[in-house]
Each structure stands twice: as C-alpha cells, then as structure tokens.
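A note from the maintainers: we've had questions about how concatenated examples are separated. There is no special marker in the raw files; a new sequence line simply starts the next protein. For clarity in this README we add a label.
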Amino acid sequence: HGCSSLNLEGLALLDFHARVSYDPNGAFISWNINDHDPCSWSHVHCVSGHVHAINLKGQSLEGVLAPELGNLTHLRRLVLSHNHFSGVIPKELGELKLLEMLDLRANKLIGKIPPEIEKLQSLNILLLYNNNLEENIPQNVENLNFLYKLQFVPNFTFNVKDAIRFLNRKLGGCIWQGNFNPNSCVLFKGTLPNGVEICVASTTITRLKDWSKRAELALHKKIETLSRVNHKNFVNLIGYCEEDEPFVRMMVFEYAPHGTLSEHLHVQALEHLDWRSRIRIIMGVAYCLQCMHDLNPPVTHMHLDSNTIYLTDDFAAKIACLNFWKEFYPKTKMSGANESLHSPRNDDKETDIYSFGVLLLEIVSGKHQNIEKLEPLVTWAEQFLEEKENISHIIDPDLKSFELNELEIVCEVIQECIKKDGSQRPSINEIIPKLREVLKVSPQQATPRLSPLWWAELELLSIKEGTT
C-alpha cells in the first residue's frame, strides 16, 4: 500500500477490495487509499471509529474472499450474500472474535467450512446456503454458545446441534429440534405429492419400549386439543401418524414459509416489517387467541411469544403450538407433574393475556423481551407507558412511520394486559373491540390470503384411502 495514511482496518478492506475482480455497480467507488479511515466508505458501517459492519449484499461482485478480512477485529456483521464470490472461505475469519453474523449465501464458494469457524464465540447467525460447499459442518460448531440460527440449505433454518447431526448424515429437511429433552422432538419440512408444503413434528424416540404410557396418553390428549382449534391464524393440525414397528409418533401441521415473527423483528438480514404489517399481525394473533379461549373447554397456549408466531407468504400471523413434546416426558419439580393433562384453568387464560401484552410491546418496540439479557422488556417500557406523552419513545427506530392514535390504543392494551394481578387483566373478548375500533383490521383482513390447508387435508385423505 506504499505510504498510505489509512489505519489497519482500512488497509484490510483495501486488501479485500483487491481480491474483487468485477464490480459492475461501483460498490467500491468511494474506497480511497488516501483516506485516513474507511468509515466514510459506502457499505461500511463504523461505531466509535471502528468497522462494525460490511454489507455488500446483491452487488454482483466477482472475486475471492481475502484472508485479510480476519484483521477487522471489531467487525460484528459481514454480509456478502447474493454475489459471485468463488474459492474457499478463509480460515482467517475465525479471528473475528466479535463477529455476530456471517452471511455468505448465494455465492460460488467451494471446499470445506473451515474448522476455525468454531472460534467465533460471539456468532449468532451463520448463513451459507446456495454455494458449492462440502456438506459436513465442523462438529464443534455446536459449542458456539450464542449461535441460534444456522442456514445451510435454502428454506431450512436449523437448530445448531440438529443441523450438524442431520446434515452430516445427509438426511436434510430438518428445520428445528427441541432442546428441552435429549429425546424430545424434531420438525421437518415436507412436500406432499400435490406440491403443498407441510411441517411434520416427530418424536426422536425410535423404540416402543422407550415410549411411556404417560407419553401416549399425553400425545392423544394433545391431538384432541389441537384438532379443536380451526382458525386461519393458527398453524392447524392436519393429521398424525402412529406406528409401533418401526416406531413413529408424529403430527402433521400447516407450514408457514416466512419463518417466525421474532426473526423478522430482530434479524437485520430478513425483510423489515412496516407499521401496517405489524398491526395486521397483532390483530391476527388476537383473533386466533379469541377463537382458542372461546372454545369449551378453552384452549390456552401458555408459551405465546414472537418465536411461536409464524408468518405466511403475505405476512399474516399464525400462532403455533409446536413446543408440546416436552409435555410427554417426566416433568421437573418446578414445572408440576401432569400439568399438561389438566383442563385449562382461568389463570391459564390470564397467562396468555399477559404474554399477549408483552408480545404487543415487542412488536411495536422491536426490542427483545429481555433487552441485552439484562433488563426485562416490561421493566424498560414502564417508564414510557405511564405518561401518554412519552409513549412515542417506545416505537421501533427502524419504523419509518406509524400512526400515533394506533400506538396509543396498543399501549393502553399493553398496560392492561401486563397488570401484576391476573384477575385485573382483560379477557381477549374485551381487548378485541378496543383494538379493532382504532386499528380497523377485520378478521378477514388479518387472515392469510391463500391457505393450502384444505388441499393438504384432501391429499392426506387420498393417501390414507389409497393405503387401506
């Protein structure tokens, strides 16, 4: 670099630029060797004078990834997806100790995933699909404490340990595995012969002798309960399968292709939700919860949060009850034995209402329910909820616009839902008219415009009839 006055981070970026052989959109036009630091360069984001993020997504770049990227020691996000980078992933990326997101999707990378990736102890998200990489994932990647999303195959987002286990066995199709019990459950994405996509939830137990009578009773109870909920904003149960040899216990659900609400609120690489989308999601959840609570006996969720809300192609909300497998195994003393077999109590509804209030708060603020794992979201928000003139401070800074009167009614409902005394919380039937009057979203407007559920049911029936 001659006598350049650039700092070390700038020099590392120039080395990266030098390995780019084709830049049709002029992504690097502002990258100047005569600058003192690179913080003014396009596609580079700095904090306190250090490079924290590089985002060159979709620039049609060609070249190879420079080992010098490993010198960007303050880097938090490296997004190079949807380009034409070739060659291998540099092992030097393992030196990026603060890296939280590595997105190399949709390139032409080859070879093995370097084992040095195991050193990225701050990594949250690793996205690698649509490359020509070898399938095996370094086994120790599962030891990355903060890694919660690993995407190696298009449309499949894996729990980390499950991804390693199933991809390395070349089984594919697995999209999640529960972590509440070593013999819990696994979710698969499947496609019926007519093209309809489904989600299959199966126990990981493989032998009948390991399956208890209590688990069998709980499974049938859960099937009975879930089959009573039939709502367009619910991830509906389509069918189930029982076989003793080979041992199979599984349920078949609708599939919502756009992932969870949590991902769209908190993962920057995913599509941003504008205000109207969030309002529609709020009402979709409310209408579905109303349907569940109005059943006799009522069906309660008990785990409602942004991770249990899935989004359809048109970003309609669907409440999912896919974490039920833990109910089929022995409970800890803390959780209460046989709780899942009891009829829902009134305080179960009150718990759902509290969770609904916290969910609304997360949707409008864009903040995790535990802010930086230090302060509960409700505690943070109380300072703004108490004074009406301060509620605009709650709003997600990523939102370009919002309606103040709509925010006010949402915040009013939040305050009522999160009351410490559950008996003072409103019912969902009291909440909905209040929200609907201001938000102006009908049940029809909140539901998915297209639903493959009935086609999936017909297909399953035809398969069943064909085998009898």
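[label: protein 2]
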Amino acid sequence: MAQKVALKSHRRNVHEHEYFVEEIHYDPTKHHHIIRKKQPGVEKTHHHHRGGGSSYFKKSHKKTASVQALTDVQLWVLDRSVFQMITQRLGMERHSQIINFLSKVSIFANLTEDRISKIADVMDQDYYDGGHYILRQGEKGDAFFVINSGQVKVTQQIEGEKEAREIRILNQGDFFGERALLGDEVRTANIIAQAPGVEVLTLDRESFTKLIGDLDTLRKDYGDKERVATLVREPPSPVKIVDDFREEFANVTLKNVKRLATLGVGGFGRVELVCVNGDKSKTYALKALKKKHIVDTRQQEHIFAERNIMMETSTDWIVKLYKTFRDQKFVYMLLEVCLGGELWTTLRDRGHFDDYTARFYVACVLEGLEYLHRKNIVYRDLKPENCLLANSGYLKLVDFGFAKKLASGRKTWTFCGTPEYVSPEIILNKGHDQAADYWALGIYICELMLGRPPFQASDPMKTYTLILKGVDALEIPNRRIGKTATALVKKLCRDNPGERLGSGSGGVNDIRKHRWFMGFDWEGLRTKTLKPPILPKVNNPADVTNFDNYPPDNDVPPDEFSGWDEGF
C-alpha cells in the first residue's frame, strides 16, 4: 500500500521506492545542473506512467540523478518491488485478455495461440467517439480492424441515391477492412462509430503479411481443428531429458573427476578442465557453482532452470550437459568442453570481423536459436562471451542461466540479460518472448563487425536510454558494417517485437533469406562440410592456450545446508 510522506527541502537519492508527486514542484538535478522541472502528478514516459523514482531494472543500480525539493513536497511512496509487480500483472492480464479475445474472432480461428500472441503484440488499440468516420468509402486502405467494444454502422453510397444506404451494424468481435490487406484496394463502404464510442484493434498490412502471409492462410481449413485446439489448451509438458549420449556417465561420481586446469572464474565459482577416471584423451568442462552465493543472490530457480533446459537439449549448436553433481559447498555441471575458447576472446584479439567471418558465426547462433525456439525456450543471454569455439571451429551456445521455457503464445516479465543486449520490451517491462533473442541477434551482428556493442555507455541506465532511442540513431552503415548488414540489423532490431525479422510467419527462414546471407551454404553448415573462417589451434585434449590464465583457487566457500539443491 502506498504511504503519504512529506519530503523536506534537502537532497536525497531514492532507490527502493517509486515517488508520485501530489503537490508543489521539484527538480531532478545532476551535478547541480537542473535537468527538468516536474509538475504535480505522475510523469508520463513512453506511454507508461512512471514516478520520479522509476527504475527499469530488477536489481539495484546507482541512481543517475538526485531529486531536490524546492519547497515542501507531498509524495505518494510505493515500494519498487510492489510497483514492478503491479505493472507486470497488468501487462500479463492485458496481453492475456487480447489473446483470449482474438482467439474468439472467426477470422483467426485456424491460428495457433502462439501466432495469435504475436498478432496481439503488433495490434494498435484506438478509440473513436460516436459519429466518427473510421473509414470512408473511396479511400485507399492499408489496415484491418477488429471491434473490441462498442458498435459501428456500415453505410454505402449507391449510385443514383442521395443518402448513403445503411448496410448493417457490426458488434464486438466483428471485423472489417480485410480487403485492404490484399492490395491497394479502395474502401467500399463507410464505417461509422456508434455512440457512446467504439474501441478497435488495428493491424496494418505490413505486419499482417509478416505474421500471417495472406487471407488464404486464415480462410484455409486445415481439417485439423481438434489438434489446434489441443495445442492451445494443453499445459506445458514436463521436462523431457534427452539422455542417449549421457548413458556412459551414469556411474560417474565426483570422485572419478580429476581437475587439470582452469578455464574461467567468476563470483559464481569456477569452470575447470577435467578428465574422468584418469583418461586424459577425453576432457570435459566442470562448472562449479557456490551454493552459498546462489542462495545469497536468490538464483536457485535460475540454476535449476539452466540444468533442466540443458538436460532437454541435444544439438550440435549447444554445449552438451552430461551430468550434474552436488556436495556441501557446490553444485556441479559436467559439460562438453570447447577448447577453441570464447568467441569474445578471438574478437578481442582481432578487433572486429569481416562480413564472411561474422556471417558464419551468426549462422551458427541462428541454428541454435531456432532449435531453442522450437522448444518454446527463450535464450536471453546472447553475446560473444557465451559463444564457444569447438576444436572444429564451429560455434556452440553456452550458459543457460537466463533461459526460460515458455508456454505456447505466452510471455515472461523477468528482467534479465546483459545491459547492452536487452531489448526495449524488457527495459519497459512490457513482457517478452523469443523475439527478444532476435533483437539480441541484431546487436550481436553489430558487435562482431564493429568490435563493440552498438549501445554502450558508462552505466546501465544510460545504455538503456540509448537502446530506447532505437537503431535508427546509430551511425551505421560505416566502413566496418555495410549497407546490407545494416539493413538486416534494422529488421532484427525493430522496436515492436512482432515486427522483427524472424517473428513473422516464415520464422527463422525469413532471416536466412535476407540478402546478407545470399550465397551462404546452409547445408554445408549443418553437415559441417563448410570450412570455418577461423580454425582454433588445439594441440591436445588438455590444451588450454586459447583461454586466459587464472590463479589457483584459495577461496573455500562455507557449507550450505538449506536443501534447495535436492534433486539437482
């Protein structure tokens, strides 16, 4: 519940609450310079109401400005977590309402819930007062309308008649303007809002074509409506563990694992190069995560999600998880090792990649994303650091701590990811799905070719501000990233998730068909006959020269006995 407080005339930083001005003025200042004055009420930004203390992110970050009262001020104070919970719940409810409504509209009857969800994302909502002409006969049209509430009157001017003839009344769930989606046809009737007013959902021709294709797709009876209905209504299935390649590790315990070298370190723990039963001809990566650190940072759910998702995957484009262990201090993941190192290290050493090199690594990632998306998994952590080079030079995705399995056609509201790679809908807490990965793919292309992320600032808040300005504000194309690559980036990084390349009816194939990939050997990539642009130098299964050097680990974490890791 919000509480009313009086803020006296002194400077303070606000971190854990949202502040809504009730009366008097105040100034947000930075470095003693007035940024702007605010009037009583709630600040309106990006069509979402936010208070003076609004934060876009889940975790605590340093505020980029202070708020100084010029006089005594009365504020309504709302705890940040409560504010985020309310906005998340409202967003989820609104999205579900639109999906449920559209699923009952006859023209969408043959579409899956996933496709209807994407249509809901790109539909605009408009309101017209009674008597307003929504469409006029003879005008060119490029939009399709569905009545969400209210009524409209359809009239038509008949040759030889003075007054327009009333044809019919359309009600909630009825639609009009669909012929405009077929081509540049003029409107054949007038559509007039009836009192007191009408609310409509609109879909423009470009979005319709991307998401659905054509009207024949909607009108076609697939003869399989029962299957579609089952697909929409059935709950998500339990995790299916793909274990054919894991059988040889069934009897392996931690005692059988011998550490050979360190591949990486972090606050979470370490990644070690290991062998099993002393056989150094086969090596693996052992990821050891500190249980106490996981509990302190409340990452238990993410760790289990990572384990479950990786246990469900079996593809050449994702690092394989063979087995998990746990003891009093750590939980462990025994993983496929990629001795070519992180793609980020290669990018750092070379500065940037040319078109040919970048195209290969983007194609590898695209194969991995397509595999995940088919399983309704959103990755949410694409970046060069999470792309490992196998000995063959081919790329594999790793680190699924932010990945999440979604129910078909649904979204998630968790704020997570690397600041430079998060999409606008994540920043604005609008809910997101697999389309967030397509945004990240566009950023990934830029980083590979520019040698740095396109949106980069001194702190996350400034980075988010740059992201919300959009890709059109970037100085591309330039000497490193050409016009064709830029065109692909701009199609992937559309502000509206439903308009991004890959989100349409053609899915990932729409990305493969882009001019930037013209002539690329996709079949050679899948069969591994395509020569990689860079072949890592790996002398033996224990060669770690493609990784940075790390000091020995002298930090012994405390025991953790809460039992959260039971079943890991």
